Amino acid sequence: MIANGISRPRVSVNAAAFVPDSFTSVDLQPPAPSSHPLNETTFDTHTMNIAAIVPLSEKAAYLRTLPVIRERCGRGHELAAQELCLDIIKTMYGADEDFATRIPPHGRWRHLDAGAPRVQYLLQAWTSSAVPIDTQEQARRTIDLLIVSVLLDTGAGKVWEYEEKMFEQGFFSGVEGQPHRVDAEGLAKITTERMGEAMQATEEVGIDGRIALLYKLGEALKANPEYFRDDGRPGDLIDFLQAKVPPSPLMLPVAI
């Protein structure tokens, strides 16, 4: 595998070799979550020796590690190569050896673009505005949008529809004249009536629960200025991360 011009060995991990026959649903208890706001699993990325840092008593955590996920995805790819689904994919994206590079990545961005390139429309509008928005602020706004959209429509079912104008009209912003943002102050002002109208809800099922999630998000943003600064925006996390990463010649600028 080659990344940023550096050749790296491909890692192959046989997860099954580390999971005994006695592996049952009782064993699938994830370890207690860390109290750190940026909870993450740490392991030796040089040797990728998962068995050395994750004991068998934490099999669930082990199976969620990146090398094992890669190995399992490899198995899935091998099966797909033998089935009709690969032929269907090649029909849509080409049959040459580079067809996989043309398949759009799956993610929250793709959900928002279902039926129309909504996010790209916003990016183009910000770039072509009378006062063009720099890429740093575009990144903040995009993160704001993606985070709040997850809390709004995950598992929403068919009782409401997402109104895509909510973000553009400043529904989540607490700063007058700056609609394209999400912040703690704006989230605190959301009411059941406003949410129901904006979401075009045919029933009130789940509306209060969604509002509670947004309130919790606002509280977390406000309580952690180290990560989200004083204005409490999800997108401010990008500034925190950039401040923690030293400049490197291998880091190339990426257009948002």
Automatic annotation (TrEMBL):
<dbReference type="Pfam" id="PF07958">
    <property type="entry name" value="DUF1688"/>
</dbReference>
<protein>
    <submittedName>
        <fullName>Uncharacterized protein</fullName>
    </submittedName>
</protein>
<dbReference type="InterPro" id="IPR012469">
    <property type="entry name" value="DUF1688"/>
</dbReference>
